[in-house]
Amino acid sequence: MLVLKFLHIALVFSGVALGLGGGGIVALMARSGDVRTIRSAFGVMVKLQPAIPGFFGLGVLFGLAYAWTSGLDFLRPWLLIAYVLAIAATILGAGFESPWHKRVLAAALASPEVSPSEELQALLHDPRERFAFWATVLIILAFIFDMVVKPFGL
């Protein structure tokens, strides 16, 4: 059973590191305004993005397998909270973060190399993206709190 718990934690942690860590790094690199850097960074991120749902999907499956083999009630309040957080994170990742990375890459590829185009500048300063990024950070913190504290009982 502990192997299932380990795989759950390791895979979800890897998904967070790749998605949020990688996404945060490329966003910071984009602030340089260097079109070649943006093209390179976002090119790598867009190539890595298809792996992110795999990490989370497998992590969730191993978490559910751990809960089942441990005899946990799938309707415990802290698990219900985790389900809601997982749905919210998925919506932000698939609905905002991933498409934004692809739009930035496309705009960077179409932009002159000497300075970012207006379209690229607008994407890099899109307040919706900043909201989505920081909302995802808060969701991850809420996940950690939920998994450690297990509010409303075990």
What is the fold's blueprint, element by element?
Blueprint: H1 2-30, H2 35-48, H3 51-69, H4 77-110, H5 118-124, H6 127-149
Offer a quick outline of the entry.
This protein is mainly alpha-helical. The protein has six helices and no strands.
Model description:
The protein has one domain. 82% of the residues lie in helices and 0% in strands. It is built from six helices and no strands. The chain is elongated and about 60 Å long.
pLDDT < 50 stretches: none
Number of helices: 6
Q: Into how many domains do the coordinates divide?
A: 1
What integer is the average pLDDT? Answer: 94
Biggest sheet descriptor: none
**Count of extended strands:** 0
Content of β-strand = under 5%
Secondary-structure element series: HHHHHH
| CA-CA gap between termini | 18 Å
Overall, the morphology is elongated
Q: Roughly what percent helix?
A: over 70%
| SS content category | mainly alpha
Rg, Cα atoms, Å: 18 Å
Which descriptors apply to this entry?
single chain; 154 residues; 0% strand
